[in-house]
Amino acid sequence: MKVILTKNVENLGDIGEIKTVSDGYARNYLLPGNFALKATKHSEQQVEKMKTRYIAEKGKLLQKAQEIASAIAKTEINIAKNVHEEKKLFGSLGVSEITEALAAKKIHIDRKSVIIKEPIKEIGIYDVEIRLHPEVSASVKVWVTAAE
Questions:
Q1: CA distance 48 to 69
Q2: Number of other residues whose CB lies within 10 A of the CB of residue 56
């Protein structure tokens, strides 16, 4: 089935692209989720309007993401957690704790943009990646210390 993407779909394409996908993928995911429209002349005109609006917004979003990334790069956060005798944490450090610590420093980000490659289960210094935009990511230094 030929579809025209109305939103960016990871591993498929960007807004306005015409793609050929399986019928099931289109019927069960793309069309109900408003990620795509069936390819017709009328839908092509609709998507062209969406695409021009998207290009204008993309520039603004990219600039905002770069500003936030520069603020994050200058930031270090300290999170105190309860620990065992062996300097291991009870549980692990979660994404929500990192976003809350950043929010305390007046940097508000979405939970989904924080990427922790390996679970943080010990005291130490960690670099945590924050993907703000498909083209912009930043790294924040997280100090995990023992709570007193």
A1: 31
A2: 9
- Tell me if 70 is assigned to some domain: no
Range(s) of the domain holding residue 16: 2-61
Q: Both 80 and 47 in a single domain?
A: no
Element (H, E) at 137: strand 136-146
Q: Are residues 48 and 93 in the same domain?
A: no
135: amino acid identity, one letter: E
Angle at Cα 105 formed by Cα 102 and Cα 107, nearest 5°?
Answer: 60
The verdict on 130 and 81 lying in the same domain is yes
Residue 147: which of 79, 82, 78, 77 has the closest Cα? 82
Q: Quote the CA–CA distance of 113 and 122 in Å, as a whole number.
A: 22
pLDDT tens track, the chain, 148 positions: 999 888 888 889 888 888 999 999 999 999 999 998 888 888 777 777 877 887 888 888 889 989 999 989 898 999 998 888 778 888 888 899 999 999 999 999 988 899 998 889 999 999 999 998 888 899 999 999 988 7
- The domain boundary residue, chosen from 14, 36, 61: 61
